[in-house]
Design a protein that fits this description.
180 residues, alpha/beta, Rossmann fold, five-stranded parallel β-sheet, 52% helix, globular, transferase
Length: 180
């Protein structure tokens, strides 16, 4: 199992990642998240190793790539999707842990794209957008060895609520900025 961690709010991420690692998960992490986890002696695979491209434009482009989005989107029961994933070297990502950076830092594009892709494919992908959900996810993994579909659906709903809220904030921010 593989998880992609790319968080602005690092609250609880070290403990959560350590528990995933102890459960045998492979952890992929973006720059800032990888630094925090590596400092805590948690092994991560850099996003750039997955997508074959470094972070550029001062971190504006990190996770948007066919190898990341494809790993989240493909239907794991669809033979055509499986064949295409194999052809292009796309390995599944089973969990996305991401929260967005605040608007004062700029508009987050990659984070929302990534969580939307994962949430669209909630049948196979668990998306966590709030640190408050870490404990429950770990509990499911320890007790049931998986995250139930019903809980993945709840997390997907929360994800789309968060992205809608973030989009509303962006719209208001731009509206206010334009009126100045």
């Amino acid at each position: 199992m593989r998880a992609l961690l790319s968080v602005y709010d690092k609250t609880g991420i070290v403990k959560f990642a350590k528990e995933l690692e102890d459960l045998g998960w492979e952890l992929i992490a973006s720059g800032g998240t990888a630094k925090v986890l590596n400092k805590a002696k948690i092994k991560t695979i850099p996003v750039k190793k997955i997508n074959g491209f470094p972070e550029i434009f001062d971190g504006r482009l990190k996770t948007i790539s066919p190898k990341i989005e494809g790993a989240l989107l493909f239907d794991r029961e669809n033979k055509k999707h499986l064949k295409e994933a194999k052809k292009f070297g796309i390995l599944p990502i089973d969990m996305v842990v991401c929260n967005f950076y605040p608007l004062r830092k700029g508009i987050d594009v990659g984070g929302p794209a990534m969580v939307r892709a994962g949430a669209k494919n909630y049948k196979y992908v668990t998306v966590i957008v709030e640190p408050a959900d870490y404990k429950k996810v770990i509990k499911f993994l320890k007790e049931k060895k998986e995250i139930p579909l019903s809980f993945r659906l709840k997390l997907a709903q929360k994800t789309f609520e968060k992205t809608a809220e973030y989009d509303r904030k962006i719209s208001q921010f731009l509206k206010n900025d334009f009126q100045k």
